[in-house]
Every structure is written in structure tokens, then in C-alpha cells.
Design a protein that fits this description.
Layout lengths: L1 H14 L2 H71 L4 E9 L4 H16 L3 H8 L3 H5 L1 E9 L2 H14 L2 H5 L3 H5 L10 E8 L8 H9 L2 H48 L12 H28 L4 E5 L6 E2 L7 H32 L1
Antiparallel strand pairs: 1-3, 1-4, 1-5, 2-3
Helix pairs in contact: 2-12, 10-11
Length: 363
């Protein structure tokens, strides 16, 4: 036992000895030294990087200073060449019509639009002239037919709100607004569309009646329209009859209530009890039902007006075309940029060749 006690005493002395403390101080010193070197290397790397960027920036400025006149002259030549071509060629003009297709008629519109584009690609000016009743010159100047969704942020929010109301909670919790919108509106899911005709003519005969008439010729769409209008008519008639019955029933309740009041007023110490279900309570319920039926009738009339046409024209074609040409689309801009890029590549290749020859001679 004494021997064990002596060992413990010696162990405690070794632990608290100055030698151990000195070793800990040495380790901390190494750690701080390593941290200092790390920061020093980091700052040195950043400094060298900035020096390299500055060096290459100076080389770029020297290169531009040496060749600025060549680059300027070549760019002017390319710009002038493109400007001459732009002056000789005709501009393109667009004619827009905003429509609201009903009864899934957008499929029919897309099919006819593709047919017209095929005629344009095949340069069949005779068929185009017969289709739209225009001259061969106007038919040759047709560039394309386009049908694009026309939907604002508000329309997307309304559609998302409708989606939430028509689905259960678990379903719509998995779809945020960004998930619902996705990459954009599908060509067949939009409510409104922009029907665009692109032509080289600044003025063009309106194709509105022809385009709508082609769609309305479809027997399937005619059947859908007839069925929808008949259904709306029946719903409207039934709602009006229900409103008439409710009106008659409310008048009957009023008469009965007045008779009860008169009978009770003739008897002393009597009162009318409204706490139970009375004729007055029934009249209030009928009033609420009539209010809902009136709102439904308003909705039916609006739906009937919207559904009366297979394709509703919101905004007709503009009589004068909008110039679609922009500076970035012009040949002047394209040629100027191309000539500038080509000369830059050639000058850089020349510098690289000089560097390689110099490197080879040094070897």
C-alpha cells in the first residue's frame, strides 16, 4: 500500500511539472505558426491572381491600341454591307388578332394554321390567293402564320386559384404556384391566343372572317356548340321557373303571417314567438335561396353570351402592320458583328503564330 501511494505522488508531480507545460506551449506556438503561414499563402495567392489579371488586362489594352484602326475599318465595312442589303430587302410586318377559342377549337385553328404555313413553304401563291381572296403578289409576300398563348400573370393566378378550389388539400399542397405554372402555358391550355400573320406588306386585307369561318365549318364543333347552348337554355329556364315558384311561395308566407298577426292582435295578452320555426324564418330561407338562384342565372347568361360563338374575337386584326425589324435583327448589325469577330480571330492567330516562332527560335 505505501508503494502505491508513492507511485501516485510521483505521477501527479510529472503531470504538473514545468516540462509538460512547456510542451503544451510549444504545440500552441506551432499551431499559431501554421495558421499564420496559411493566411500568408492565401493573401499571396490573391495578390498573384490580381497581378495576373492586371497583366493580361494591360496586354489586351495594348492589343486594342495597336489594332483599333483595323478593327474600326472592318466593322464599318461589314455594317455598310449589311445596310445595303437591308435597304434592298423588304421589312416584315405583323398583324395580330386576340381570340378566345371555345369547345376546344384551338386544335382546329392549329391544324389550319399549319396548312397555311405549308402553302407558304411550298410557295403555292395560287392556293393562298384562292384561300384568302388576295392577289398573287400579296400571297407571295406572306411569311408565316402563328398562334401563341396570350396569358398574363393575373390569368395564371386565377387558374391556380381555380385549381386549388377544385382539388383536395393533399393534392394542391404538393403543387406550388411555380410548379403549377411550370415552363409556361401549354399551346392548348391557354384561354386567350394571339393569332399573328407576318407579311412583307405594310397593309394587308383582314383575314379575320376567313380564319374564323374555317374553324366554324367543323361539324364536331357545331355539335358541341349546339349542345352547350341547349344545356344553358334549359338551365336558365329551370332557374327562372324556380325563382317564380319561390316568389309565389314567399307571397303565400306573407299572407299567412299577416293573418296570424291579425288573429293574435284580436286576442289580449298574446305575442308572436319568433324563436321557433315560423313563416318568417321560412321566408328568410327562401330569400337566401332566391339570391343564390339569381347569381346562378347571371352566371348562366354570361356563359351563354361567351359560348354563342365557337371563336370569340377579343381584338380584331390591326389594319396596318407593325414593323417587326429591330436593330439586332438587321443585316447591318449581323454583318458588322461578324466582320469584327472574324478580324479579331485572325489577329489573335497572328499573335499566337509569332509567339510560337519566338518560342521555337529560343529552343
Amino acid at each position: 500500500m505505501p508503494h502505491s501511494k508513492n507511485q501516485k505522488t510521483m505521477s501527479d508531480k510529472e503531470t504538473n511539472s514545468p516540462i509538460t507545460v512547456k510542451e503544451e506551449e510549444i504545440d500552441l506556438g506551432k499551431l499559431f505558426s501554421l495558421i499564420g503561414k496559411m493566411f500568408s499563402n492565401l493573401f499571396s495567392f490573391i495578390g498573384n491572381l490580381l497581378k495576373g489579371v492586371f497583366h493580361y488586362l494591360i496586354l489586351l489594352l495594348i492589343f486594342l491600341k495597336t489594332n483599333i484602326i483595323k478593327l474600326f475599318i472592318v466593322t464599318i465595312i461589314g455594317f455598310t454591307s449589311g445596310l445595303v442589303i437591308d435597304t434592298a430587302s423588304s421589312s416584315k410586318y405583323s398583324y395580330d388578332m386576340i381570340v378566345e377559342p371555345n369547345y376546344s377549337s384551338v386544335d382546329q385553328m392549329l391544324e389550319k394554321m399549319e396548312y397555311y404555313n405549308v402553302l407558304i413553304r411550298e410557295e403555292d401563291s395560287i392556293a393562298l390567293s384562292n384561300e384568302f381572296g388576295i392577289t398573287f403578289g400579296n400571297a407571295n409576300n406572306l411569311v408565316s402564320f402563328e398562334l401563341n398563348p396570350y396569358e398574363s400573370k393575373k390569368d395564371q393566378l386565377v387558374a391556380y386559384d381555380k385549381f386549388i378550389k377544385e382539388t383536395d388539400t393533399l393534392t394542391h399542397l404538393q403543387f406550388s404556384f411555380s410548379d403549377f405554372v411550370g415552363d409556361g402555358t401549354s399551346i392548348r391550355d391557354s384561354r386567350y391566343y394571339v393569332y399573328r400573320i407576318v407579311s412583307k406588306d405594310s397593309r394587308l386585307k383582314s383575314f379575320e372572317k376567313k380564319l374564323i369561318y374555317d374553324v366554324e365549318l367543323s361539324p364536331t364543333l357545331q355539335k358541341r356548340r349546339k349542345l352547350k347552348l341547349n344545356t344553358l337554355k334549359l338551365d336558365s329556364t329551370a332557374t327562372r321557373l324556380a325563382l317564380g315558384d319561390i316568389k309565389s311561395l314567399r307571397e303565400l308566407y306573407k299572407e299567412v303571417t299577416l293573418m296570424e298577426v291579425e288573429n293574435q292582435s284580436a286576442t289580449p295578452n298574446t305575442y308572436i314567438d319568433f324563436s321557433k320555426e315560423t313563416n318568417l324564418n321560412n321566408d328568410i330561407e327562401l330569400f337566401n335561396i332566391a339570391k343564390e338562384l339569381n347569381n346562378n342565372l347571371i352566371f348562366l347568361e354570361k356563359d351563354k353570351e361567351k359560348s354563342d360563338e365557337i371563336v370569340n374575337v377579343i381584338t380584331p386584326f390591326n389594319p396596318v402592320g407593325n414593323d417587326r425589324s429591330t436593330f439586332t435583327d438587321s443585316n447591318a448589325f449581323v454583318f458588322g458583328r461578324f466582320f469584327l469577330g472574324a478580324v479579331l480571330v485572325l489577329l489573335l492567330l497572328k499573335r499566337v503564330n509569332q509567339y510560337l516562332n519566338k518560342y521555337q527560335s529560343n529552343k
